[in-house]
Automatic annotation (TrEMBL):
The lineage of its organism: Bacteria, Bacillati, Actinomycetota, Actinomycetes, Kitasatosporales. Residues 2-289 form the Prephenate/arogenate dehydrogenase domain. It catalyses: prephenate + NAD(+) = 3-(4-hydroxyphenyl)pyruvate + CO2 + NADH. This is Prephenate dehydrogenase. Keywords: Amino-acid biosynthesis, Aromatic amino acid biosynthesis, NAD, Oxidoreductase, Tyrosine biosynthesis. Residues 294-362 form the ACT domain. Pathway: Amino-acid biosynthesis; L-tyrosine biosynthesis; (4-hydroxyphenyl)pyruvate from prephenate (NAD(+) route): step 1/1. It comes from Streptomyces tardus.
Length: 362
């Protein structure tokens, strides 16, 4: 692949442009909003100058409701040898493309499993896809050349190709992406009218749960409108669990000992099922999750402090597997949680204490 056209210069499209440009591909950019294309070009994602020369691959990075029409228009214009989209829903746009008379042989539906709670070209980055799954949904009609172009794109973006049926993909993302977005928004919505005293008590747990609730509502409405039934199926199952959980909690408040016992059993069951499900979420590099041990360090909010703590950990010969920062409310300080292999926790804590860091006891 030497040339590409990115149609739609939001977060994903601009990130594709940045990744391809960084690896020597000549990228052209196009957007219904010329300002977005110009902004993406200014960041190095490609050129927003119009050209009649066909490219090797056209990447359609528009909302799901507009994918089919955008692909058909690009095919009729003859802008590329192959066409793929990067939308988060696959079966609907492909069916619509067929009904509009689009050429399924030169088209491939794909979905990079990467994103941010922020949208637009300013949020884009060349490394957005590194190590992330990138789903391909080929059909018997898909030309080998188009599949190879898609695989080359994924390689250039340093993502990991995963082949799936379109319908299976849509059910999967309903569970692991679309439903979590709604649940995060539902929890965050409880905070909208909450007493200020309660909001000031927010800790890392509520921040973790509500992080993606900061996403663009219009963008998510487009996504959910393209995949409503699978998401509704998952939410219906969650609603059943919620109903049972509410009943169990009410039982815990009962004066009847048997009812309290049954309520406790119900809550224990959902917590245990949560443990079991969480254990299936892939860990580092897609491997089975590892039970890391946390070393918590008090850190001041000053330039260079994070770099210094990582350097000290490196001097101790300990690899940091993951990190979180919990800010202290109303103070210029916080806690850095360093996740390490259990066998390294004690030596890291000792080494950091020796270098003057305050370690919080577990």
């Amino acid at each position: 692949m030497r040339t590409a056209l990115v149609i739609g210069t939001g977060l994903i499209g601009t990130s594709v442009g940045l990744a391809l440009s960084a690896r020597g591909v000549a990228v052209r950019l196009r957007d219904v909003d010329p300002h977005n294309a110009s902004l993406a070009a200014s960041r190095g994602a490609g050129s927003d100058a119009e050209s009649q020369e066909p490219v090797d691959l056209a990447v359609i990075a528009v909302p799901p409701a507009h994918i089919a029409a955008a692909v058909v228009a690009a095919q009729q214009e003859g802008v590329a040898r192959g066409y793929l989209d990067v939308g988060s829903v696959k079966s609907g746009p492909r069916g619509e493309l067929a009904s509009l008379g689009g050429d399924l042989s030169t088209y491939l539906g794909t979905h990079p499993m990467a994103g941010k709670e922020k949208a637009g070209p300013l949020a884009a980055s060349a490394d957005l896809f590194e190590g992330r799954p990138w789903v391909l949904t080929p059909t018997p009609a898909t030309e080998t050349e188009v599949l190879n172009l898609a695989l080359e794109l994924i390689s250039l973006c340093r993502a990991v190709p995963v082949v799936m049926e379109a319908e299976a993909h849509d059910r999967a993302v309903a569970l692991v992406s679309h439903t979590p977005q709604l649940l995060s928004s539902l929890v965050a919505a409880r905070l909208e009218a909450a007493d200020e005293t309660a909001v000031r008590l927010c800790g890392q747990g509520i921040r973790d749960v509500t992080r993606i609730a900061a996403s663009d509502p219009d963008m998510w409405l487009d996504i959910l409108a393209a995949n409503p039934d699978p998401v509704a199926d998952v939410l219906a199952a969650v609603a059943e669990d919620l109903t049972e959980t509410v009943a169990s909690l009410r039982a815990l408040a009962s004066a009847d000992g048997v009812e309290r016992s049954e309520g406790g059993a119900g809550i224990s069951d959902i917590l245990r099922r949560g443990n079991s499900g969480r254990a299936r979420v892939p860990g580092k590099h897609g491997q089975a999750p590892t039970a890391y041990q946390t070393v918590t360090v008090l850190i001041s909010d000053e330039p260079g402090e994070l770099a210094r703590i990582f350097a000290d950990a490196g001097q101790a010969g300990v690899n940091i597997e993951d990190v979180r920062i919990e800010h202290a409310a109303g103070q210029q300080a916080g806690h850095v949680q360093l996740m390490v292999e259990p066998r390294s926790a004690a030596s890291l804590a000792a080494a950091l204490r020796a270098r003057g860091w305050a370690i919080r006891a577990r």
